[in-house]
Amino acid sequence: MTFSRSESCENICKEIHKYLGDVVFLIQNLASLSQIECKKIRDAYTEIYGEDLVQILGNTAMAGQESSRTCAALSSLMLNPHERDAEVAREALNEPINFKALVEIFTCRKSSHVLLLLQAYRTRFRRQLDQDIAKIEPPNPYQKILMALSASHKAHSADISQHIAKCDAKRLHQTGEGKSGAIDESVVIEILSKRSIAQLNLTFSTYNHIYGHTYTSFLKNEKFGEFEDAVRMVTKFICNPPKQYAKVLFNSLPLL
Predict the structure, then answer these.
(1) Which of 36, 63, 75, 203 lies 20 to 30 angstroms, CA to CA, from 224?
(2) Which of 20, 51, 78 corresponds to the end of one domain?
């Protein structure tokens, strides 16, 4: 049994409430909903039954039932995008910490989305995401980078500048391969914290244009430490998100 788009939200909610234990029904009727439809149904369900449909599906997922993974996916589907990222961020902070998921959020989302995500995280978990990242133990190089990117989303200018990109590219070179030893962490953190993702993308592109190779290729040095490895991964996400998404998707699929 499936409901049509022409049905009222009230009738749809009643059907969902009636068949909450029927995973097949839930998949057939929730998985194809648009973001707007999910919000309307979620709001209507809360108004009618006084409960959040997301919470109900989430509780079913936590109950350890055979269908728990499906219910967890449906619960995530019903969330707004920034709420979903807040959930992903919270889960990523559980041991073992998934730094890649956090990097993806801070490098591949618009600043307006990140600000809504930070608000959603605070509302849902009564915690500050920045503070949770800062409290990670043992300390990790990704902490400084993630904190810098978070600050960037709060303070940067939306405009991009070729002049700034050229200056930043030269600073990265002078404090990196232009000298011996490890890169200057303070310079990298300063640039990451003060530039938008679009500006950083232009900076790394300019670096490639000036010096004939990418910044990531310079960082691919076995003599470097964890900080350089972290910067390299972050730079990859900034420069080519689709490629990184493809890798994540490929690694999540079962081998055939």
Answers:
(1) 203
(2) 78
**Helix, strand, coil abundance in the chain, percent, nearest 5:** 70, 0, 30
State pLDDT tens for residues 195-211. 999 999 999 999 999 99
Using DSSP, state whether 208 is helix, strand or coil. helix
Whether residues 104 and 192 share a domain: the answer is yes
| 50 token code pair | 């006084």
State whether 231 and 165 are in the same domain. Answer: yes
CA atoms of 127 and 234, how far apart (whole Å): 25
Alpha-carbon distance of 118 to 66, in angstroms, equals: 33
Residues 3 and 11: beta-carbon distance below 8 Å: yes
Cα 226 off chain centre by: 21
- The answer for residues whose C-beta is within 8 angstroms of residue 184's C-beta and 6 or more apart is 175, 176
In a domain, residue 127? The reply is yes
- Count of residues in the chain: 256
The rounded distance, in Å, linking the Cα atoms of 142 and 251 is 21
Gap between the Cα atoms of 43 and 46, Å rounded: 5
Structurally, how many domains does the chain consist of?
Answer: 2
Domain CATH for 50 = 1.10.220
pLDDT tens-digit map of 83-125: 999 999 999 999 899 999 999 999 999 999 999 999 999 999 9
